Amino acid sequence: MLVVGLTGSIAMGKSTAAAHLRSRGVPVFDADAIVHEIYREEAAPLIEAAFPGTTDADGVNRSKLSDALQRDPAGFKRLEAVVHPLVRERERRFLEDAEAAAQPLAILDVPLLYETGLDAALDAVIVVSASAQAQRERALMRPGMTPEKLDQILARQMPDEEKRRRAHFVVDTNGPPGPSLHQLDAILGVLSGRRAHAFAQFWLRH
């Protein structure tokens, strides 16, 4: 089974790409959704210990956590030390299930893929990319997004140019979705001929 990463900076069209891959029958791991889940579950007491007052009866209060991180940007490292190992374990279980189901390909949709070093444990990486102008316009249309918050997010993400340089495949998402989705279909065709090694080497429990 091939293990392929999907990534891209904020507002580059990664969610659209992931939805298209699912529509083609490819299992896709949604790291953002898993973070929301573990914030309600196993991460909550750990985050409360690291950032007192940021949880409630429903788990981590994302607004309170965001406020705490804005006051203390160095806290991102503490947060990552809690969250990343929990997400990595969920990734492993997802891949084990996909392998058990005899899937030929599984996708890990991870925003901070390169930033966390996940690329070393993959067979290939797909990066979705658009111009800085298009990215900013799209991002600022999101509810609750401000220029200041966007700048803080971008400061934590690897520059798009570097992601493009390191990618095995780049999907141009500047225009309407159609051409981008055709690019994804072409990539699936290329991947079907690749040899897999990442799952056995990095994910299989011994």
Q: What structural class do you assign from the helix and strand content? A: alpha/beta
CATH topology value of the largest domain: Rossmann fold
> CATH-wise, what's the superfamily of the largest domain?
P-loop containing nucleotide triphosphate hydrolases
- Per CATH, the class of the largest domain reads Alpha Beta
Shape annotation:
globular
Q: Walk across the major sheet and give the strand order.
A: 2-5-1-6-7
Total strands: 7
What portion of residues is helical? 40-55%
Termini, distance in Å?
17 Å
Architecture per CATH nomenclature, i.e. the level-2 architecture of the largest domain: 3-Layer(aba) Sandwich
Q: What Rg, in angstroms, do the CA atoms define?
A: 17 Å
User: What's the tally of helices?
Assistant: 10
Main sheet? 5 strands, parallel
What do the pLDDT scores average to?
96
User: What are the segments in which pLDDT stays under 50 over at least 5 consecutive residues?
Assistant: none
Q: What is the count of structural domains?
A: 2
Beta-strand percent range: 5-15%
